[in-house]
Design goal:
By secondary structure, this protein is mainly alpha-helical. It has 2 domains: 144 residues, no CATH class; 154 residues. The radius of gyration is 29 Å and the shape is elongated.
């Protein structure tokens, strides 16, 4: 082997070793960055989504107060914290006081349960066992608690875990709202930076289009979620008024907030149904049944409204947006509700662009006139621009 071949092999080997070292360093740095950022990924990701969704409102408010986006973002964040955070704190404090009072009454033996109405036994499926259990509680509450201690403890753990999960989601949302305000304050520079990232990942022609698609998809899903939550909260609020449930406005506001967080409406609708039958049962079974059916329809209304409202004004078809929202929500939670449609919509647009380019490229070899027809059909019409 000649000296020239030996030096060439050594050069290739040194280049490979240097490349592996660089790749290893990049991988280590990337891993450390993920580890450092992961505790804040949920809050920052949701904050970015809220910033994109609320930025048009922030711009409109900034224009009205003299083109000051920072002040406008601060006002939006303070308003959101007062509108959402204050009722949440009040509700949490009230529930904690009631839970402590209930526990104290159970421990002291002063808790009394009224006897059930005979009509409870006629309820379908659950009427008879519910009537028996309720009657035992009314006759000897302390004995009932001792006999069902394990089940009560399991239910208590589930209730505490559910309440903690909802409280964590609320706190994360409020923190994300603060992050969104910071992002909106630097919206123009942030948008320009994201544009450079999209251009780098694709090219200067497709980058702006993909950025616009991502922004429009997030705003469409956000408006769909808020719109559906508002309609559902309005329906539930009407039901609260008809059923005579105390504080219907506050309960409707809580339903709106939980709907935005994608907490199922049954969390607030099922207790309302229980209130109708346990407390407000003097109006007659027919009225109670009608109100129960109404609450069940209101509770499930989002399953019908979401396919209608999601995906409006987005380049990708509505089924793609809907599947992305549902799949993202199941896989990644509330952040996936927004990131899922963005991923599927971007993949759909890129894939269809690739398919259209291939179909146009194949036509000229067969018939030049057909290629011109295809190009004319694919070019945007004046009323679509």
């Amino acid at each position: 082997m000649s000296n020239q071949d030996t030096s060439s092999e050594q050069s290739v080997s040194s280049v490979m070793v240097e490349g592996l070292i660089r790749f290893g360093l990049i991988a280590v740095i990337l891993f450390l960055c993920i580890q450092v950022f992961s505790p804040f990924a949920r809050i920052v990701g949701l904050g970015l989504i809220l910033a994109i969704a609320l930025y048009p409102l922030n711009q409109a408010l900034a224009n009205r107060i003299g083109c000051r986006p920072g002040l406008a973002a601060t006002l939006l964040v303070i308003g959101g914290l007062l509108l959402l955070g204050l009722p949440t704190v009040m509700l949490g404090g009230s529930m904690a006081d009631q839970a402590n009072q209930l526990y104290s009454n159970i421990e002291s033996g002063t808790l009394k349960v009224s006897a059930p109405a005979p009509a409870v036994a006629d309820w379908p499926l659950v009427g008879e066992p519910l009537y028996q259990a309720w009657s035992k509680m009314a006759e000897d509450l302390q004995g009932f608690v001792e006999a069902n201690h394990a089940k009560i403890r399991e239910f208590s753990r589930w209730a505490v875990a559910t309440a903690a999960s909802i409280a964590g989601a609320i706190l994360a949302f409020l923190g994300s709202l603060i992050v969104a305000g910071i992002i909106m304050a630097f919206g123009e520079s942030g948008s320009a930076a994201m544009g450079r990232i999209f251009n780098r990942l694709s090219d200067s022609s497709q980058g702006p289009r993909l950025q616009t698609l991502s922004t429009a998809t997030i705003r469409s899903v956000a408006m769909g979620v808020v719109g559906v939550s508002f309609i559902q909260a309005l329906l539930l609020g009407i039901g609260f008024i008809l059923a005579g449930i105390p504080a219907p406005g506050i309960l409707a506001l809580i339903a709106l907030f939980l709907g935005i967080l994608q907490v199922p409406a049954m969390v607030i609708a099922l207790p309302a149904i229980a209130y109708i039958w346990l407390v407000g049962g003097d109006d007659g079974s027919l009225i109670n049944i009608a109100l129960t059916v109404y609450f069940l329809i209101s509770m499930l209304a989002d399953n019908v409204l979401k396919p209608i409202m999601l995906g409006r004004g987005v380049e990708a078809p509505m089924p793609v947006i809907l599947i992305g929202a549902m799949g993202g929500m199941i896989s990644f939670g509330i952040i996936g509700l927004f990131s899922g449609p963005v991923i599927l919509a971007t993949a759909y647009v890129v894939f269809m662009e690739w398919v259209d380019e291939g179909s146009v490229a194949d036509v000229p070899s067969q018939d030049p006139a057909a290629a011109a027809i295809v190009n004319d059909a694919q070019s945007p019409q004046p009323d679509q621009q």
